[in-house]
C-alpha cells in the first residue's frame, strides 16, 4: 500500500495537478490539507475520473482536510475529542472548531489527515491555540493506541513545526519565531515519547517539504521540513519505503508544499477481490 500526505494549498486550483501526480506516483491513499473549500465545492469529478473516492472536511476558503483513496475507506471521523476551537465565540460561548482533522480506516490501517494550526507569532492568540491543539491531539492518540494495541495508526499532515535545527535553512532567520520555538518542539517530542516515530526521516534523512513563494525561496532551497508521517509502533513495522517528492514544487502553479510518501507492507483491502494467479 502506498500512502501520501500533501498540503495542496487550494485543491480547486490544483485538482488536475494532484490527480495527475496520484496516478504517476501510483499512490493508493492521499491525505490532503488546506483544501480551502467547502465540502460542496470540492472538485470531485477530477478524482472520480482518476478512480479515487474522496471524503472531505471543509467549512470555507480556509483550512480544510480530505482523503482520496482508490482502495476504499471506512470509519470516517471528523475532528477529535477535546479538539480546541478558535475565533469568535458562538452563541453558546464555545469557540468554533476549524476543519483541521479527519480520520479514515484503509484496510487495517488508521490514518489521520492533520493540519496543525500555524501559530502565526509567539505573541498571537493563535500560538497558545496551536499548543493546546497539539496537546489534545496527543491525548487522543495516546488513548487510541492504548485501546487498539497492536493496530497501526499514522498521524499525517502539515505539522507546522520544524523539530530539528536542520529542518530549516537558517536558524538565525527563525530566531524568536514560531515553528522552531521550544514549546512547539516539546509538543512534537511528546508524540515521540508516546511511541510515535517519524517514519520518513530514517529513510530520507535530509530534505525540505515546504518553500515559501516569496523571495525565490525554492530556487535557493531555503525551505522547511514541516510535513510528517508519525506512526505508531505497529505502523512503523509496516514501513518499507519513503520519499519526499521535491519535484512537485516545480512547474506551473505548484503548492508551496510537496507530497511525502510512505510505502507499507500491508495488504490492500481490495486484495481479496483480485484473481489468484498460479
Which labels suit this protein?
single chain; alpha+beta; Deoxyribonuclease I, Chain A; six-stranded mixed β-sheet; 5 helices; disordered C terminus
How does this model look, in words?
The protein has a single domain (2-268), classed as Deoxyribonuclease I, Chain A, CATH 3.60.10. By secondary structure, it is of the alpha+beta class. It contains five helices and twelve strands. It has helices spanning 11-24, 44-50, 126-147, 182-193, 233-236; strands at 2-7, 29-33, 53-57, 65-69, 74-78, 101-106, 109-115, 153-158, 197-198, 227-231, 239-244, 260-264.
Quick summary:
With 278 residues, the protein is of the alpha+beta class. The protein has helices at 11-24, 44-50, 126-147, 182-193, 233-236, and strands at residues 2-7, 29-33, 53-57, 65-69, 74-78, 101-106, 109-115, 153-158, 197-198, 227-231, 239-244, 260-264. A hairpin with a 7-residue loop joins strand 3 and strand 4 (65-69).
Amino acid at each position: 500500500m502506498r500512502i501520501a500526505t500533501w498540503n495542496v494549498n487550494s485543491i480547486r486550483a490544483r485538482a488536475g495537478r494532484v490527480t495527475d501526480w496520484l496516478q504517476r506516483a501510483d499512490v493508493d491513499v492521499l491525505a490532503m490539507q488546506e483544501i480551502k473549500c467547502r465540502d460542496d465545492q470540492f472538485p470531485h469529478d477530477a478524482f472520480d475520473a482518476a478512480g479515487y473516492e474522496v471524503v472531505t472536511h471543509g467549512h470555507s476558503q480556509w483550512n480544510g482536510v480530505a482523503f482520496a483513496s482508490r482502495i476504499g475507506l471506512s470509519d470516517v471521523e471528523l475532528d477529535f475529542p477535546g479538539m480546541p476551537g478558535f475565533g469568535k465565540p458562538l452563541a453558546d460561548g464555545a469557540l468554533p472548531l476549524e476543519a483541521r482533522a479527519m480520520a479514515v480506516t484503509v484496510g487495517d490501517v488508521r490514518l489521520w489527515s492533520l493540519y496543525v494550526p500555524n501559530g502565526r507569532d509567539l505573541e498571537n492568540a493563535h500560538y497558545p491555540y496551536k499548543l493546546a491543539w497539539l496537546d489534545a491531539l496527543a491525548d487522543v492518540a495516546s488513548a487510541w493506541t492504548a485501546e487498539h494495541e497492536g493496530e497501526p495508526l499514522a498521524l499525517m499532515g502539515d505539522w507546522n513545526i520544524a523539530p530539528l535545527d536542520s529542518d530549516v535553512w537558517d536558524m538565525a532567520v527563525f530566531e524568536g519565531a514560531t515553528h522552531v520555538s521550544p514549546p512547539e518542539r516539546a509538543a512534537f517530542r511528546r508524540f515521540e515519547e508516546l511511541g510515535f516515530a517519524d517514519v520518513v526521516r530514517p529513510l530520507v534523512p535530509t530534505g525540505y517539504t515546504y518553500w515559501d513563494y516569496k523571495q525565490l525561496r525554492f530556487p535557493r532551497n531555503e525551505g522547511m521540513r514541516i510535513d510528517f508521517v508519525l506512526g505508531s509502533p505497529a505502523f512503523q513495522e509496516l514501513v518499507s519505503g519513503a520519499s519526499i517528492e521535491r519535484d512537485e514544487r516545480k512547474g506551473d502553479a505548484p503548492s508551496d508544499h510537496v507530497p511525502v510518501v510512505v510505502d507499507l507492507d500491508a495488504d490492500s483491502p481490495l486484495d481479496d477481490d483480485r484473481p489468484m494467479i498460479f
